Amino acid sequence: MAVNLRNGISMPLIGFGTFRIKGREAILRCLEAALKSGYRLIDSAAIYHNEEDIGSALEELLPKFNLHRTDLFLTSKLSPRNQGYQPCIDSVKRSLGLLKTSYLDLYLIHWPGTGGKKVDNVVNIQMRQESWKALEDCYDKGLIKAIGVSNYCLKHLEEMKSYARTFPHVLQVEHHPHYVQPELVEYCAHHKIHYQAYSSLGTTVDGNCNPLLNEEVVKEIAKNHDKSPAQILLRWATQQGIGVLPKSLDPVHIEENIALDFLLDEKEINRLNTLGTRCKYAWDPSIVI
């Protein structure tokens, strides 16, 4: 499954997330399982502190699976502490070096705020504008094939209309049946921004709890399809054209999470859309000015 971005770039709808996966051995083991299972999108970020290990692992694994760099879609993201024009340029180049690649398929501004600045400080507006200018310049030079933002709210996207030469190709945000954002989804569809979800399984920030996986409706639908609750939640998203980035350290779950070749019916999707719970499990960007 893939989606064509506004600029014609093909992007897999299902990617492998690497948040909290650290250490060369863990990265190598997980990426080997991911590539074997068919994942071709690898999602990382500067603040994950695993780009170097990902680069080394891919250097070793691509020949093993008879793959080339062009077979992969690599994403990384700007750390909030590196907001600003030149710091952003430097961060892109650093990611390229660590990932051992001459280009990135997608690079995102990870957060609308700036590291070390209060959320209500107006400097946040200036800094993310400078960062976007830097990404546009990297995009023009071919260092990045597509550019986007993560954790931006409607107000942040609307603000970009005053300065962006290139509007984001991708928005990556928290999205799952406990935190459905129909207005944001509709906005992105209207502006041809691909909507990509993280925390699709409703995992809490500390990673110790998955309330959504224990929802009776989710478990009932999973039983009816002979699938795992995780597969149901991921298919709920992809069936609506929403990208997902499941992550796991378990090779069995890694393989399961991309095996989404089944369909939910309209009634099942509606039941998941209307669980009656609205709960955000990750960080709240709406507080950033």
Describe the overall structure.
The structure is a single chain. The chain has 289 residues and is an alpha/beta fold. It has a single domain (11-280), classed as NADP-dependent oxidoreductase domain (TIM Barrel, Alpha-Beta Barrel), CATH 3.20.20. Helix content is 39%, strand content 12%. It contains 10 helices and 9 strands. The protein has helices spanning 24-37, 51-64, 85-98, 123-140, 154-160, 182-190, 216-225, 229-238, 251-258, 266-273; strands at 2-4, 10-12, 16-17, 41-43, 73-78, 106-109, 147-150, 170-174, 194-198. It has a 7-stranded parallel beta sheet. A two-stranded antiparallel ribbon has the order 1-2. α2 links the parallel β4 and β5. α1 runs parallel beside α9 (251-258). The mean pLDDT is 97. The record marks 77 as: Lowers pKa of active site Tyr.
List the helices and strands and how they pair.
Blueprint: E1 2-4, E2 10-12, E3 16-17, H1 24-37, E4 41-43, H2 51-64, E5 73-78, H3 85-98, E6 106-109, H4 123-140, E7 147-150, H5 154-160, E8 170-174, H6 182-190, E9 194-198, H7 216-225, H8 229-238, H9 251-258, H10 266-273
Parallel strand pairs: 3-4, 4-5, 5-6, 6-7, 7-8, 8-9
Antiparallel strand pairs: 1-2
Question: Can you tag this structure with a few keywords?
Answer:
single chain, alpha/beta, TIM Barrel, 7-stranded parallel beta sheet, two-stranded antiparallel sheet, globular, NADP-dependent oxidoreductase domain-containing protein, oxidoreductase activity, acting on the CH-OH group of donors, NAD or NADP as acceptor, AKR, NADP
Number of strands: 9
Q: Would you give the CATH topology?
A: TIM Barrel
Biggest sheet: strand arrangement: 3-4-5-6-7-8-9
Helix residue percentage: 25-40%
| CATH level 1 class label | Alpha Beta
CATH architecture: Alpha-Beta Barrel
Q: CATH superfamily name?
A: NADP-dependent oxidoreductase domain
Into which percentage range does the β-strand content fall?
Answer: 5-15%
- Rg over CA atoms, rounded to whole Å, is 18 Å
What structural class do the secondary elements suggest?
alpha/beta
- Give the overall shape, derived from the CA principal axes: globular
User: What's the structural domain tally?
Assistant: 1
What is the distance, rounded to the nearest whole angstrom, between the alpha carbons of the first and last residues?
36 Å
Main sheet: strands, sense, barrel: 7 strands, parallel
Count, helices:
10
* SSE succession: EEEHEHEHEHEHEHEHHHH
Which stretches are poorly predicted, pLDDT < 50 over at least 5 residues? none
Overall mean pLDDT: 97
Domain NADP-dependent oxidoreductase: 14-274
Protein name: NADP-dependent oxidoreductase domain-containing protein
Keywords: NADP, Oxidoreductase
Active site: 48 (proton donor)
